[in-house]
Amino acid sequence: MKRFFLMLFIAFAVTCFSACGKESDEKDEPGLLLGFSQIGSESAWRIGNTQDIEDAAEKSGINLMFENANQKQENQIAAIRKFIAYKVDVIAFSPIVEDGWDNVLEEAKDAGIPVILVDRDISTDKKGLTTCLIGADFYHEGYMAGEYLIRKVDGLGLEYVNIVEITGTVNSTPMRQRQAGFMDAISGDTRMTVLESIDGDFLKSRGAENMRYLLQTYGDTIDVFFSHNDEMTLGAIPEIEKAGFVPGKDMIIISIDGGQEAIDVLKQGKINCIVECTPKLGKLLMETALKLKNGESVMDTIHPEEQVFSDEMDTSQIAPRGY
Ligand code: AHR
Predict the structure, then answer these.
(1) Beta strands in the chain (DSSP E)
(2) Residue predicted with more confidence, 235 or 27
(3) Per the domain annotation, does 109 fall within a domain?
(4) Do residues 204 and 222 both lie within one domain?
(5) pLDDT tens track for 87-137
(6) pLDDT reported for residue 177
(7) Ligand 1: which of 53, 94, 97, 119 to mutate, judged by most atoms within 8 Å of the beta carbon?
(8) Could you give the 3-state DSSP secondary structure of residue 208?
(9) Do 290 and 269 lie in a common domain?
(10) N or C, where is the chain less crowded by C-beta within 10 Å?
(11) Over the range 218-244, which residues count as b (16 or more CB within 10 Å of their CB) and which as e?
(12) Could you tell me the pLDDT band of residue 30, with boundaries at 50, 70 and 90?
């Protein structure tokens, strides 16, 4: 009988202990409120980036206060002010352009709220406005695009090539750095001439509109189309076809991002090269936000690893991209 009561007591104690354990696990949730201002929904990349950040927040038990700025800097500034008013623990944002953030970031600093830059950088003379940048090395992306072009031109034995470039949003980090990297890679090569560089704002419609204009202006003298993102590439390709040219053959096409739709077009041979820019920054963002909340130090810059997809490889082996 004694033994029975002992067993009963142990069973009760174990149940109680594990219940208490569960409760304390729940209490262990980080209790972190993260305010995030997204640029908008201009591309498959951006939509994939938003999804990835929302998923990562949910997985790590971080409360996300999400604001979509619909491509307007003033909306991003208003969102950051809202985060300050709500006293969030950490602010993160993807700045649409590099300039014009000093005042609002001074306000965040005065409120003692750390700020993480996601995807894009800012330009400022002031120190200590942000803690960390999590995003791609856009210069390297542009450089890899230029290196691919040199290899392609070598392989085809071309003596000269005329290039048209459709850029991303003027004064944004990817626009500035992709252009700089590409130009640095090709500028020592006397075969290369850039006929025109034109702003496409990372939008499919602007890719189409700009390609129509470039074809009307330069016709069959265009040998290469360098596009700062897949969205604009996908907008431009039907225009190239309508004008009677075969994309990927009559015109070498180089894009950046690597979303599924563009990878499928690469597989069809209508795009020659896509430099990857990964939108999957959510996990790194949550890890960094937690460190800041806990008063730990974080790295100044975190670049994810990226690769090049091109007609130099067996494209059938490219794994599904997930965005
Ligand atoms: O900042 C990253 C860029 O922004 C991506 O290349 C583009 O597709 C997006 O809109």
Answers:
(1) 33-38, 63-68, 90-93, 115-118, 132-134, 161-167, 192-199, 224-227, 252-257, 273-276, 301-302, 308-310
(2) 235
(3) yes
(4) yes
(5) 999 999 999 999 999 999 999 999 999 999 999 999 999 999 999 999 999
(6) 98
(7) 119
(8) helix
(9) no
(10) N
(11) eeeebbbbbbbbbbbbbbbbebbeebe
(12) confident
Q: Which ligand 1 atom lies nearest to the CA of residue 119?
A: 1
In a domain, 46, yes or no: yes
Distance 30 CA to ligand 1 centre (A): 30
Same domain, 230 and 297: no
**Same domain membership, residue 169 and residue 108:** no
The partner residues of 90 in beta bridges, in order of sequence, read 34
Nearest atom in ligand 1 to 231's CA? 8
Question: How much distance in Å is there from the Cα of 277 to the middle of ligand 1?
Answer: 8
The confidence band for 28, taking pLDDT boundaries of 50, 70 and 90, is low
The confidence score (pLDDT) of residue 4 equals 45
Give a yes or no: residue 323 inside a domain.
no
Domain that holds residue 80: 33-136+279-306
Q: Is the pLDDT of residue 12 over 50?
A: no
Q: Name the closest-CA residue to atom 3, ligand 1.
A: 174
Answer whether 0.85 is exceeded by the pTM.
yes
pLDDT of 52 over the 70 cut: yes
142 and 120 both lie in a single domain: no
- Give distance in angstroms: CA of 6 to centre of ligand 1: 65
Residues with CB under 6 A from ligand 1: 42-43, 45-46, 119-120, 174, 202, 229, 231, 256-257, 277
Q: What's the structural domain count of the chain?
A: 2
Which amino acid is located at 56 in the chain? A
**Could you tell me the CATH number of the domain that includes residue 238?**
3.40.50.2300
